[in-house]
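Whiteboard transcription, Tuesday session. T.W. wrote the C-alpha cells on the left side:
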C-alpha cells in the first residue's frame, strides 16, 4: 500500500502567550511512500518525526494537508480504521497478560462480521510470534522477558492484524547496542518477508542508513532531503544533511574559493570550476583523504588509531570547525609520525562546499584525478 503525504502540516498552539505562532512541528511535508518499502524518517530530537508518524496513524489531526493510503483519503479516519500497526520505544505491553494474550489483544476488539473465534486468534498470534521468533515464550509475562524480547512481542502485536502500514517510532532506543543491531536486522527481514509499507523513525543515522530503502532527513519540521541512503550520503543538499549522516562524521573547515580554486588556509586543495569567489564551509568525508607526500593539504598529527582493516588518523588544522579531524586510511599505508605533520591529497567527490551563511551545497564538477577515488 503506497502512502501519500500531501502538504502535511501540523502546528501546535503556543503555550507562551507572547509567541502566537506556536510550533510548526511538521511543515508542508510532501512525499509518496512507495508500496512495500521501508522508509527511515531521520533527524535530531524535536524535528517532527513522531508528529509525522502520529499524523500518518491518526493519533493526531493535521492542521492542513491530506494523507492517502493507496487511493483512499484517510485524513479523517480514526486510528482503528486505518489498518496501521504501531510500535513505540517503550513496548507498552499489558503486564498482567501473557505474551499470547498481549499479541492477541488487537484481535479481541474485532466486532461483528470481523469477530474471530479463540482458535483462529491463537493461530494468528502464534503466526505473528513465529515471525519475530518468540513463539516459544507464549506463556510468559512481560516481566519475565528481556527488553529485546518484549519489543518483539510489541512488534508481533503490531503485525497480528496484518496492517497495511507499519509505523515504528524509535523502536530500538531502549535496547543495548548489540541487541539494537540484531533487532534492526530482524525488523528489516520481517518487513521484507511481509512486504508491509513501513515507516521507521529514528534519530540514529546509522540505524536509518542500514535498513531503509529510502531515508527522509528532517530538520525543524522541514523535510531537507529524501533519497536512497547512499545517494543522500554521496550527494547531500546542505551542510546539515552532510553532518547528520556518516560515522565518523564529516570534517568541516572554513575555506575560500578564489579564481575557481578552493583554499583551506593558505593551501589550495582542489579546483572548483565555475564557483564564484566567496568564503565557504568545506566538508570532507573521513574516507576522502589520501596520504600523499606531495599532497596539498597539511595537518598536524595527533594520533594514529589502528582499527583492524582501517587506520584512523587524528589530526588538527587551524581552519577546522571541529577540535580534531578524522581521516580513514587503509591499514596498508605506512604513516610517518616523526615529522608531526601529515600531508593529504583529497578525493574530489568526497569534498563538498557549502554556502557560508545558508549551508546550502554549492555544486561543482569534480575532476577525479587518475589513481584516486
Ligand atoms: P521528534 O519526534 O522528532 O523528536 P516531535 O514530533 O515529538 O519531534 O516534536 C516536534 C516539535 O513539536 C517539538 O518542538 C515539540 O516540542 C513539539 N510538540 C510535539 N508534540 C506537541 C504537543 N502535543 N504540543 C505542543 N508541542 C508539541
Ligand atoms: Mg519522537
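and on the right, the sequence the group agreed on:
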Amino acid at each position: 500500500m503506497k502512502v501519500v503525504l500531501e502538504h502535511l502540516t501540523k502546528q501546535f498552539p503556543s503555550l507562551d502567550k507572547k509567541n502566537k505562532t506556536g510550533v510548526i512541528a511538521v511543515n508542508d511535508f510532501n512525499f509518496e511512500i512507495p508500496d512495500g518499502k521501508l522508509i527511515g524518517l531521520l533527524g535530531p530530537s524535536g524535528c517532527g518525526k513522531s508528529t509525522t508518524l502520529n499524523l500518518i496513524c491518526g493519533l493526531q489531526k493535521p492542521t492542513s494537508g491530506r494523507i492517502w493510503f493507496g487511493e483512499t483519503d484517510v485524513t479523517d479516519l480514526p486510528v482503528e480504521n486505518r489498518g496501521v500497526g504501531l510500535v513505540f520505544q517503550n513496548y507498552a505491553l499489558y503486564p498482567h497478560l501473557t505474551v499470547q494474550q498481549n499479541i492477541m489483544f488487537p484481535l479481541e476488539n474485532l466486532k461483528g462480521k470481523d469477530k474471530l473465534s479463540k482458535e483462529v486468534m491463537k493461530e494468528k498470534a502464534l503466526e505473528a510470534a513465529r515471525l519475530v521468533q518468540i513463539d516459544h515464550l507464549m506463556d510468559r509475562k512481560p516481566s519475565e522477558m528481556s527488553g529485546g524480547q518484549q519489543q518483539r512481542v510489541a512488534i508481533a502485536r503490531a503485525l497480528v492484524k496484518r496492517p497495511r502500514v507499519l509505523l515504528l517510532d524509535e523502536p530500538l532506543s531502549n535496547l543495548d547496542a548489540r541487541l539494537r543491531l540484531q533487532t534492526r536486522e530482524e525488523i528489516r527481514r520481517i518487513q521484507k518477508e511481509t512486504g508491509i509499507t513501513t515507516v521507521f523513525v529514528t534519530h540514529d543515522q546509522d540505524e536509518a542508513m542500514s535498513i531503509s530503502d529510502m531515508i527522509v532527513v528532517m530538520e525543524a519540521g522541514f523535510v531537507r532531503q529524501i533519497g536512497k541512503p547512499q545517494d543522500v550520503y554521496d550527494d547531500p543538499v546542505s551542510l546539515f544533511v552532510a553532518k547528520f549522516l556518516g560515522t565518523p562524521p564529516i570534517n568541516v573547515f572554513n575555506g575560500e574559493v578564489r579564481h575557481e580554486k578552493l583554499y583551506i588556509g593558505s593551501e589550495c586543495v582542489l579546483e572548483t570550476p565555475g564557483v564564484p569567489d566567496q568564503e565557504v564551509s568545506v566538508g570532507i568525508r573521513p574516507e576522502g583523504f589520501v596520504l600523499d607526500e606531495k599532497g596539498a593539504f597539511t595537518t598536524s598529527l595527533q594520533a594514529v588509531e589502528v582499527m583492524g582493516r582501517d587506520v584512523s588518523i587524528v589530526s588538527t588544522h587551524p581552519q577546522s570547525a571541529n577540535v580534531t579531524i578524522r581521516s580513514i586510511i587503509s591499514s596498508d599505508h605506512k604513516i610517518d609520525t616523526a615529522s608531526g605533520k601529515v600531508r593529504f591529497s583529497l578525493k574530489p567527490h568526497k569534498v563538498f562546499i557549502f554556502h557560508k551563511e545558508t549551508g546550502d551545497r554549492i555544486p561543482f564538477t569534480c575532476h577525479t584525478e587518475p589513481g584516486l577515488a
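Someone added at the bottom: The helical segments are 49-57, 99-108, 118-131, 147-159, 177-194, 205-211, 229-234, 239-244.
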